[in-house]
């Protein structure tokens, strides 16, 4: 078998969740050629996992489209402050909420902060997630299984419950799923299971909230260059990450963020219960 081409410098971070500052190259998150047109003017958006990666890119583009922003994050203070700086550079305020959204009280606090500081909530982006690769299901402990489900899935339930009293007609919920929900991943069994559940949650919630005029959709990214990658894979795996998709490269967060803009704006007014697939060309028929 031919040796896989090196796509990124080999690198690994020992702490989870990963930090963005040590990554080489730095992820592309601000999409310089993207010009806002007021698609989200006057809206207020809460984005979980907004400190870096896809969440940061979504925060920047939402701000560029006129939305006031709130982000939640676990403990990556420096990354969160950089997101705040980038959002401010777009002329919008950015509320920053620290804490583990796997705990329901933290989710309630995050929503309460948004209402306290901005008086409303129009868009909820359930983006935060974690993964812990294991060679075998036998290596997945009960603690890891619960942790992954709490962060990736339980938090989405908790946040929707907390946000729903404040979401009026025309509000939008956008969930982050994954290509692994459709094609699986032998070393990410628990992570893939959460992402499959998110697809089902998105479809069911869309039906449940339709009469209230609230749309619910999801985005299922493929291999994207975020801190999650060097913090969870070996240096050798990181070096070739993204090479197994038709485009033969890793995707950037700001190549995913426009899908979130579309689903939060009136451009997608006749879409609910659907999933978009920025994944480098992998056909999943889902």
Automatic annotation (TrEMBL):
Polar residues: compositionally biased ranges: 1-12
Family annotation (InterPro entries): NAD(P)-bd_dom_sf (IPR036291), Sc_DH/Rdtase_CS (IPR020904), SDR_fam (IPR002347)
Region (Disordered), start-end ranges: 1-39
SUPFAM superfamilies with a match to the protein in the record: NAD(P)-binding Rossmann-fold domains (SSF51735)
Protein known as: SDR family oxidoreductase
Gene3D superfamilies per record: NAD(P)-binding Rossmann-like Domain
Similarity field: Belongs to the short-chain dehydrogenases/reductases (SDR) family.
Protein's organism: Azospirillum doebereinerae
Keyword Oxidoreductase: yes
Lineage top rank: taxon: Bacteria
GO molecular function, one term: oxidoreductase activity, acting on CH-OH group of donors
Alphabetical keyword list: Oxidoreductase
One Pfam family named in its UniProt record: adh_short_C2
């Amino acid at each position: 078998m031919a040796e896989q081409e090196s796509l990124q410098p080999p690198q690994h971070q020992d702490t989870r969740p990963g930090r963005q500052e040590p990554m080489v190259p730095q992820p592309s998150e601000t999409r310089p050629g993207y010009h806002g047109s007021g698609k989200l003017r006057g809206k207020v958006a809460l984005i979980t996992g907004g400190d870096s990666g896809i969440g940061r890119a979504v925060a920047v583009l939402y701000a560029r489209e006129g939305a006031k922003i709130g982000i939640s994050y676990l403990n990556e203070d420096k990354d969160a402050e950089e997101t705040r700086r980038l959002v401010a550079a777009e002329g919008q305020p950015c509320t920053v909420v620290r804490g583990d959204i796997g705990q329901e009280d933290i989710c309630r606090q995050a929503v309460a902060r948004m209402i306290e500081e901005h008086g409303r909530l129009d868009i909820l982006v359930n983006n935060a997630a974690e993964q812990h690769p294991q060679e075998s299901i036998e290596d997945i402990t009960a603690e890891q299984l619960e942790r992954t489900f709490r962060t990736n899935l339980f938090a989405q339930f908790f946040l929707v419950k907390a946000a729903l009293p404040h979401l009026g007609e025309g509000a939008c919920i956008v969930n982050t799923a994954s290509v692994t929900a459709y094609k699986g991943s032998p070393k990410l069994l628990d992570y893939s299971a959460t992402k499959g559940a998110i697809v089902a949650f998105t479809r069911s919630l869309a039906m449940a909230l339709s009469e209230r005029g609230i749309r619910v959709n999801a985005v299922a990214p493929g291999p994207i260059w975020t801190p999650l990658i060097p913090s969870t894979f070996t240096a050798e795996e990181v070096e070739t990450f993204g090479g197994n998709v038709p485009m033969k490269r890793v995707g950037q967060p700001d190549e995913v963020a426009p899908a979130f803009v579309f689903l939060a704006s009136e451009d997608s007014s006749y879409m609910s219960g659907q999933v978009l697939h920025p994944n480098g060309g992998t056909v999943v028929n889902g």
